[in-house]
Amino acid sequence: MAGRALLYVASFVALGATAAFAFDGVGRRSIAGALVWAVLVAAAAGAPALTGRRGRLAAVVLLPLGALLVTRTEMAPPPDTGGLRELAAFYADQLASGAAAYASDGFPLDLTTAGDLKLLLTLCLYAIVALAALLAFVLRRPLAAVVVLAVPFAFGVTVDHQARAALLTFAFIAFACCLLLYERALRRRGWESGDTATGLVGGAAAALLALWVVGALSVSGSLPLWDWRAWDMSLGGGERLVFDSMEGYAGLLDPENEERVMLVTSPVPAYWRANALDRFDGTGWFTGEVKAVRLGAIPRGDAFVYNVPPVDVVPRGALVRQSFEVQGIETDYFFTGGAVTTLDYARDVPVRVSDGLALGIDRPLGPDLEYGMTAVAPALQPADLIGRGRAYPPEVARRVALPFPSPAQSAATATEADWRAAMQDAPEHREWRGLYRLNREIVGEATDPYEVALRIERYLRLNYRYSLSTPSPKDRSPYADFLFNSRMGFCQHFAGSMAVLLRFNGVPARVAVGFATGVKVGSDEYVVKRNDAHAWVEAYFPSVGWVTFEPTPGQRAPGAATSSANASFDDPFADAEGIDLRAGPAPERGLPRGFREDPGLAVIDDLAGQAAPGLRTRDWLPWAIVAVVAGALVAWPAGRALLRRRGLRRGDPGARLRVALAVLRADLADFGYAVPPSQTPDETAAFIGSRFDLDARPLVGRVQAVLFGGRVATEDDAAAAVAFRRELRRRLRKRAGRRRTLLALYGLGRRTAAARVSSGRYACAPRVGR
Q1: CATH architecture of 382-410+436-516+533-616
Q2: What does the angle CA 151 – CA 157 – CA 161 come to, to the nearest 5 degrees?
Q3: Of the four listed, 123, 180, 601, 706, which is most buried by Cβ atoms within 10 Å?
């Protein structure tokens, strides 16, 4: 019993450690040591409960004390701290500071110097593991403990894009099965090796199935699982539309779903912009800290007018009137088709304009929404962007930095060797160490920001392939994996990667999100569907403002002819080093099957038949795992039956008779009727006759004559035992039903209650357990 208790505690510790390693993915710097220490303390505090009633009382006292131990180990108070009140105030301040840092920081969290945030995360994990220990050790509810530990595990996996998430999932399920298995062992007096093998086989099968589901999915399927910050755009049934992150974008682009999102009336085509993501943390793009100004509502007739204050620089263009009819969704932003000057809406709502030119609403609007606006639609030519220099306003330059060094930041990182040496100080961004060489290949000797932007845009369109299904990323950042490994992705990858490359060259850039133009259905009307959801790039040029670029193959940039993806683009650098940046159809490898090119846009016709490249290179993996699981499910009962009956055809009739009787007793035990050693053959026969209406007296007479009468067993004796066992098994299956029969095949149908099944003065006891 002590050995089983030790295995039970070890399974809990392993399960908690797995959750701790997954939870460690929330930070850029690993704090796995502190998290595992918290797990060990919680397990040590709760384990005494397995010794009995006094141990349970001790565990209830030790678990809170463990929190104090973890706190003092993680952060010692200042030497001049005196008294419990000052000590409590110190730690309360640290936790409040950590909570504020958590609320303001983005994932992965910066734990390099944030001791207060590290303390907060460690104590949060300790509290969760302590609750699980209370359930597993004191209350003996291991399943509830597994559910509790699944919370930090799932939270960590959702923000950790590394491939280790699949292995952690496998380990978590395996250790959870071990915990449940050994808890069952603690409750039973008798425990055989076959019981352990059954549990381990079932746990391994469940873990392999989970590994297949998590590990064999492509990026388009796995990112929504891995990142709860996903760009939640489940359109339908009044779902909410959020534009604060780009992760999980492929989940929106469903080729089978052509649901209409909105009808736009505009004299010029445009991208219908919701928001701009201007913070890159080395892993993903997010909305940074913005200075939002609330707009005042001016009544005008049956509506309200909101005057949008002008920004410092707006690209020159024509003032146009646009109207939007949004259907079936809730949104935090008003979509726009240019630099907005006025917004018309039927209600007085809190509208805020950010310095990223996004019109946000405090409370989501919808599911049906109609509004109008006046906006400046850019009308630029390439000549307007050449030679603008790099005199960027401080507020622009300050908010477009990369989290790792770039040659544009300092002359100390101008060469590749110097830059790679500087990258040694940022080991969390090691997946970007190939950026310098790739950038040199793309940009060459170009220095003009506009030429740099055109070269990056054209390079991505020509050398990378569009695909909604991509292999699972090998790097933490899907954009680094896109640039250096897979070289395939959707608009999220193209736009995010181009913005990184522009910033690497010192050009302010951000990612704009919203919808592409859609399909023109009238002189000034555009139908926008779910599959028109899009991300593109905006780069800043002094005295011009933010200008749109389109790096995604197959897409045509609407509006101003300043992008190489625009049909009317005229390349001003056509003779530069023999590189032709003029517009033209993307090469065949750059277009996904089902794209068609219209004069100003490209839409998805049919991607349903497109094979997933991520699965194409690993077609054998899911089938191999299915074969292993199916083989285990079939081999276990078959092998069990063969081992049990291996003596029925070998040896003399007496030996085969004894084997037949042993198999008969095992069959009864499988269905929950274990024959105790103290029960005589006559009592067993009486039980079988009363319970299953099967006369066992002739067989018992043969057996007693052989075992106790000295008669030599014959072939008829062995055959009679085999025939009787078959008939009894048939009646057992009929009486038990399909479910219990299936459990009996795997040895899982044995009763664990200590009660006896009686029939008159005869009894056949179930297997003794709880």
Answers
A1: Roll (3.10)
A2: 165
A3: 601
